[in-house]
Amino acid sequence: MITEEIIRNTSQNPNICYQCGKCSAGCPIRNYMDDSPNKIIRYIQLGLYEKALNSDTIWLCAGCLTCSTRCPKEFDLAKFMDALREIALKEGIKVKEKNLLKFHKAFLNQIKKHGRAYELGLVREYKLATGDMMSDVDVAPAMFMKGKIGILPHNIKDRKGMKDIFEKTEVKIK
Amino acid sequence: MKIGYYPGCSLTGTAKEYDKSVRKTAEVLGIELIEIDDWNCCGATSAHITSHRLALSLSARNLLLASKQGLKEILAPCAACYSRLSLSAEELIKKPDAKKEIEELLGEEILEIPKIINLVQLYQRVGAEKMIEKKGTGNAKLKTACYYGCLLVRPSGLNSFDDSEEPQSMEKIVTICGAEPIDWNYKTECCGAAHSIARKDIVVDLSHKILTDAKTRKADIVITACPMCHTNLDMRQKDIKKKFDKHEKIPVLYLSEFVGLSMGLTKEELGIDLHFVPFESKTV
Amino acid sequence: MKVGVFICHCGENIGRTVDCPKVAEAAGKLPGVVHSVDYKYMCSDPGQNLIKQAIKEKELDAVVVGSCSPHMHEKTFRKAVEGAGINPFLCEIANIREHCSWVHENKDEGTDKSIDLIRYAVEKVKRNEPLTTIRVPITKRAMVIGGGISGIQASLDIANAGYEVVLVEKEPSIGGHMSQLSETFPTLDCSQCILTPRMVEVYQHPKIKLMSFSEVEKVEGFIGNFKVTVRKKARFVDDEKCTGCGDCIQNCPIKKKALSEFDENLTTRTAIYVPFPQAVPNIPVIDSEICTYFKNGKCSMCVKVCGRGAIDFEQKDKLIEEEVGAIIVATGFKLYSIEKKPEDSPIKGYGEYGYGKYKDVIDGLQFERIASASGPTEGEFLRPSDNTVPKKIVFIQCVGSRDEAKGFSYCSKICCMYTAKHAMLYKHKVHDGEAYVFYMDIRAGGKMYEEFVRRAIEEDDVKYIRGRVSKIYEENGKYMVKGEDTIAGVPVTIDADMVVLATAMIPQPESKKLAQTIGIPYDSYGFFNEVHPKLRPVESSTGGVFLAGACQSPRDIPESVSMASAAASKALVLFGSDFLEREPIVAKVNENICAGCFYCKKVCPYNAIEIKEIPSKNGKPVRVVAYVNEGLCQGCGTCNATCPSKSVELTGYTDAQIFAEISAI
User: Fold this and answer.
1) I want to staple C467 with a disulfide (CB 3.0 to 4.6 A). Which of A61, A86, C380, C486 is the partner?
2) Of the candidates C31, C545, C581, which has an alpha carbon nearest to the alpha carbon of residue C330?
3) Cβ(B187)–Cβ(B167) below 8 Å
4) What does the DSSP assignment read for B200-263?
5) What pLDDT, on the 0 to 100 scale, is given for residue B283?
6) Chains in contact with chain B (at least 3 beta-carbon pairs closer than 8 A)
7) Residue B280 predicted with pLDDT over 90
8) Binning pLDDT at 50, 70 and 90, where does residue C616 land?
9) Across the interface, do B185 and C474 touch by the CB < 8 Å criterion?
10) Domain C335-506 adopts which CATH fold?
């Protein structure tokens, strides 16, 4: 059950939003979202937490901070979206934008393993997870040729420490 | 002048020319870059959108390593790394409780939190003379669209160095380099950033809008200081062309490459040959 | 001495965090207290009767009331006490509301603190002396600062009642913002048509002394007896000789160097100018910043053409002293500008709206000038950049208002109405034009206001979109306005030809300085504060200084005019008596021990200390001592604190009284 308590932990007061919609008006991803960003805050204000957390909006948010920069009430919506995603994962809510989540998971797995991004590992894991084998097959060889995708991972020395950080802070997805 | 250096993951792979040109120009400018030993990924978008503590810890480890090396200032050329590291530094400074918790997790105290700066700030500091050491180079009179993207000038908090709506600092630098910055609308609009792979359609639409505005305003090139923006604007032009037939190619250069050209460095020295959209300078 | 103590619950205000019966009980045991009770509302009639009755029945000599701040009800209780035959200055207030219940949460602690506060007051009142009020004569003459519609109304009201008025206006002409407006809501009557007759009336009124192009420099004195120094700025035109023929303006060769303030920078004006043809007084001013004579002495065309010899390049600012009994402050407002401002400014500007770089993104007052028959386009709707008729206009409300990040959290109140009016005026003239309004809430509280807005929507087909605009940018000669319709939940982008921003009403930039000069309080924005928001809305907390119009908070014309008449009537109430009664809380010098060092004279902020010679028996002066002019002394106590020989004391607050209070802690 998502409670007011959990929402309160986002350390921002959703009541300060007066629903002017400036966040949505400036959002570069707005056209691809089901719900406008201001509606997400509205759901929270009304206690309709599930609606907010089930919306694809929170996953499509690119974290560009346009909304946070322009908000007349200085509400940091980008940060609020971070918090909502984290809650959604913890609560085991099904993510509509599956591929986005799979990408983030694949990306973080490389960091967990190597300490730094490993392009080839990321691509392999992402493609296996999504079954999307065909996208970007045209640019990949060029990337190799230009030396932009390395064959081997960039391992850091303290990989144990890295794994440790992940184990202590990673959000375990239900 | 010595300064700490955090290249970040992109600069070791997809944006290796950015790394190359930053190092090259720094060398010419007499700046010694001291790379943080054993630095790790800042977590980029993927970390902060799934776990705040993870994102904070990943950045904090880098800040810890830097402070142990005695580095007071870190150059982070990638706008995303710059944003993540400075937001984390800000949080650690403002919230002693969070700092304590993270330090316990890392097993060490961060004695001095270094200041994070981006490439624009570094160039601003060294001044004009050195940037145009050798004249008559590649970018004289080029009409230039300076693209800040989202993370370089937002949010306007602790680390703000320029206006978040009408930034001008890159324009000043390219003017010094002999180019003509254009006034345009999309300099702080988002390119879709981390959606590049999972939602390519979004990135193609957004990048198309950005490049079209630059083109309409007669820009010869677009300049950026972010590897994610560069990938989306440069590599994705093929996809843009596929979807938008009328799209005309426009070269996208890193700020460091652009500055390097005006210093008399060659395209190869700066890695410009690694771009997808080739850059043909007017006077070379 | 028999003291009575009366504890007020103030409804729940005190009762919630103070156990009032317990406080009354404890007070009853204090030495000297013979009677102590509590009551729900001590300031009410039955409450006051409780005090009066007790005074008679228990033969009380002094009274302590534990209640709200003395600012609130000291007068009430002193009057009650006086009614029962005790000298009113033998009544003391212990503030157990603002100083206790309102600022504490714990009831036990609140109760204990209240008992303490009562104990101090009891100790003080036991040492109070009966005092009599001071009578001061009143100068029955008023000064009005600001010559907009509020100042004009206030001046006319006072003058028509038969008293003299000095009207001080900092601009070359009176009329204020109202003279710039086209039509006024909700009746759409022409602003100038209703205003200019009043301006002329002011000018011709035998009781009104108009000081235009003048500013208040210094204010001394107090209610009924102010001395105001006014700086009459040099116009470089002799107002006695000038007939206002306008030949000088016609012939001035400097035509384009300055933007017209009256036309909100949409046109230019000459170096010698009147702000607008109907200006009052119709006497030009020379702008010495751009006038060629002041630059290099080479031009004197105006001197040549002036048949009256009225041009005087040598004219200097003049300082003029005026004695008045009341001051009405009516300095009005300014508009927020979206331009980029310095870091420390509370006005951040709007980068997302271009920081003012787009010529056809204008503010409400500029739109008024365009819509006005006397404006640069003679009332035809033409946009500034290319003088074409805009076919699509977007109006954006709440720019700088209700926006803590970029400006101010308050609502500017008038924008909803004037935006509806703007859209309506536009639609009435450009029939095929489209008008869009981005709003957050429509605030149309006022007689016929809501009906007016509905008319714009229903009959004139103005499209209202609920949402704030995120960005304006230029594309293919259009202004792209990016917003969101929060009702439909859809993004909206409008390709407009012109954008009008309803920018916030803000106080005049010099308002804080003026408030300090006069000595009246202001809020964090710089609006002047009234003494009580409900019951004394036009009085400042400084006696004899009244407020009118938008200098107090955003106001529209009807409200400003009502406030002005209210402020005028407050001044007239003052002028209704010949003397003013003042509290006798003034400094008194013990001439026997005064050493005549006059430190007190140096520190007195009211110039109330004079030098007195004490003559010997043969009439020759033997020594000098300090003497307090009771008329000027405000009882601030600075002299008392400064005096090295302790020979000055403040009546009602003697050292003995204060020490008794402190000892009771």
Assistant:
1) C486
2) C545
3) yes
4) HHHHHHHHHHHHHHHHHTT-SEEEES-HHHHIIIIITHHHHHHH-TT-----EEEHHHHHHHHT
5) 43
6) A, C
7) no
8) confident
9) yes
10) FAD/NAD(P)-binding domain (3.50.50)
Give me the pLDDT at residue B140, please: 65
Do the chains contact at A66 and C483, CB–CB below 8 Å? no
Query: What does the block give as tokens for C616?
Result: 């010997």
Integer Cα distance of A75 and A53 in angstroms: 19
Locus of tokens 């303490």? C116
Q: What local confidence, expressed as pLDDT, does residue C68 receive?
A: 96
Task: Assess whether pLDDT exceeds 50 at residue B284.
Answer: no
Q: What order of strands is seen across the sheet that includes strand C318-324?
A: C214-222, C225-232, C318-324
Q: Which residues of chain C make contact with B154, given a CB cutoff of 8 A?
A: none
Could you report the predicted ipTM of this complex, rounded to two decimals? 0.90
CB contact under 8 A, B51 and A86: yes
Residue among C486, C490, C492 with most chain A CBs within 10 A, to mutate: C486
Chain A residue closest in CA terms to C397: A20
pLDDT of B155: 66
pLDDT (mean) for B31-45: 95
Written out in words, the top-level CATH class of the domain with range C141-233+317-332+508-575 is alpha beta
The conformation of residue C536, written as its DSSP 8-state character, comes to B
Fold that domain C3-125 belongs to in CATH: Rossmann fold (3.40.50)
List CB contacts of B225: < 8 A, sequence separation 6 or more. B77, B79, B118, B119, B120, B148, B152, B170, B254, B255, B256
Strands C134-137 and C579-582: antiparallel
- From the list C351, C475, C476, the residue facing B165 with the nearest CB is C351
Chain B partners of C474 at a C-beta cutoff of 8 Å?
185
Each residue's pLDDT tens digit, B182-216: 999 999 999 998 888 889 999 999 999 999 999 99
Q: Which residue of C has its CA nearest to A68?
A: C405
Tell me the CATH class for B131-274: alpha beta
Q: Which two tokens stand for residue B216?
A: 């309409």
pLDDT tens-digit map of A81-120: 999 999 999 889 988 888 899 999 999 999 999 999 988 8
Q: Do C226 and C220 form a contact (C-beta atoms < 8 A)?
A: yes
Domain ranges for chain B, please list them. Answer: 2-119, 131-274
Residues of A with Cβ-Cβ distance to C489 under 8 angstroms: 35-36, 39
**Looking at domain C587-663, does it have CATH number 3.30.70.20?**
yes
Does C335-506 match C141-233+317-332+508-575 at the fold level?
A: yes
Contact A21 C466 (CB under 8 A): yes
Check CB contact under 8 Å for B197 and A154.
Answer: no
Residue bearing tokens 């204060």 = C658
Q: Cα–Cα distance between C551 and C523 in angstroms, integer?
A: 11
Residue A71 backbone dihedrals phi, psi, to 5 degrees: -60, 125
Q: For chain A, say whether C352 makes contact (Cβ under 8 Å).
A: yes
Q: Do A149 and B238 touch (CB under 8 A)?
A: no
Give C94 or C134, the one with higher predicted confidence.
C94
- Residue B180: partners with Cβ closer than 8 Å, 6 or more residues away: B141, B142, B143, B144
pLDDT for the residue numbered B204: 96
Q: Note the pLDDT tens digit of each residue in A60-76.
A: 999 999 999 999 999 99
Task: Summarize pLDDT for C459-477 with one digit per residue, the tens.
Answer: 999 999 999 999 999 999 9
